[in-house]
Design goal:
This protein is mostly helical and about 210 residues long. Helix content is about 70%, strand content about 0%. It contains ten helices and no strands. This is TetR family transcriptional regulator.
């Protein structure tokens, strides 16, 4: 999910990811161009009818460049630039703060930023995840990759090893719950407040399932 030079919310109290160098900024521009071209084509022709060759032409790059940045078409739809933002927010949280609250801050900041800066892309992505089985399946893999990134940051803050099982299980559980919240949001035609849903999801993890 990041490649901004400051917190997406603009909050000066939140740590920003490191400033990108020229090479990284060029890569980001290429990734963004490919992703935006993909969403335009999908809007016009549908997911299945959109080919990598069409995406490359629309983004003014070669098909090999598309595959260099995104191993599969599913990855183009699912990609965003916010993982580094979440990692930076997580590392900047108070050292004594419970890990779940630190993750809450990182996740809600990232989703608030996506909804503010890329609302239509976010909504189209979520609709496609519900409609296209291959995207939903790949989403599990991409969120697992994000979970490992965040787990390393949590382990470092806690003075644990990077591959600590407890940290990995905890972070994977949070990301798995987040996946369900995103699908729930999309299935209900995105009528709910997504950030509020994230809070509700983490509250459920924290307090357990309450019987009516």
């Amino acid at each position: 999910m990041a490649a901004t030079t400051r917190s997406p919310s603009g909050d000066p109290a939140t740590a920003a990811p490191p400033r990108l160098g020229l090479r990284e900024r060029k890569k980001l521009r290429t990734r963004t161009a490919i992703r935006r071209a993909t969403f335009r084509l999908i809007t016009a022709h549908g997911y299945e009818a959109t080919t990598v060759e069409q995406i490359a032409e629309a983004a003014d790059v070669s098909p090999s460049t598309v595959f260099r940045y995104f191993p599969a078409k599913e990855d183009i739809v699912l990609a965003d630039e916010y993982d580094r933002v979440m990692e930076a927010v997580l590392r900047a949280r108070p050292a004594a703060e419970p890990p779940l609250e630190s993750l809450r801050a990182a996740l809600t900041e990232a989703f608030a930023a996506m909804l503010a800066q890329e609302p239509e892309e976010m909504r189209q992505r979520s609709r496609l995840i519900v409609e296209v089985p291959a995207l939903r399946a790949r989403m599990t893999g991409t969120m697992a990759e994000t979970a490992l990134l965040l787990a390393r940051a949590i382990a470092e803050r806690a003075g644990r090893e990077p591959d600590d099982l407890d940290v990995r299980v905890f972070t994977a559980a949070v990301m798995g719950a987040l996946r369900e919240a995103l699908i729930h949001w999309a299935e209900r035609d995105q009528q709910d407040d997504l950030v509020a849903l994230v809070h509700r999801t983490l509250d459920t993890l924290q307090g357990g399932l309450r019987l009516q």
